[in-house]
Amino acid sequence: MGSGATAQVGEPRVRPAEPGDASDVARLLALLGYPCERDEAFERIAVIAQDRRQHLLLAEVDGQACGLIALYTLYSLAHGAELARITALVVAPEHCRRGIGRLLLREVELLSRRHRVHRIEVASNARREGAHAFYRGCGYADGSLRFVKMLGD
């Protein structure tokens, strides 16, 4: 290759996370601001794998995990139908702006349609203006304001 050439990067693919992905899941969650150890990530993957209403997908490029998305489906009394909530979405900084976030969203949208879900919700911290713009650009509209109360100590 010449000095001005760039290395070819493989096509991203999305697949369900497995227990062996615990280190990658821990690393990606830390990038999102939710650090955990590999063993904690392993337990989280196991919990999700046992729950038919939850899904955890990893994006990979050339066999390396570069993003994840978690989805939870539930019945909404208010809507009288199943809905889905994205509970985590992160793409490693070195892979941003390559369509991986959009690919992850498309995958959970397809998964949701297969489960007869007609509405997907996602919450995003008020400070994450870039994420807000990303979601809007992917067809998500501003929704309800969310309130949080921490319980416990």
Automatic annotation (TrEMBL):
EC number: 2.3.1.-
Classification via PROSITE patterns: GNAT (PS51186)
Positions of the N-acetyltransferase domain: 12-153
UniProt keyword Hydrolase present: no
Protein name: GNAT family N-acetyltransferase
SUPFAM superfamilies assigned: Acyl-CoA N-acyltransferases (Nat) (SSF55729)
Pfam families membership: Acetyltransf_1 (PF00583)
One Gene Ontology term of the molecular function aspect: acyltransferase activity
Region span, Disordered: 1-20
Keyword annotations of the record: Acyltransferase, Transferase
Matching PANTHER family: AMINOALKYLPHOSPHONATE N-ACETYLTRANSFERASE-RELATED-RELATED
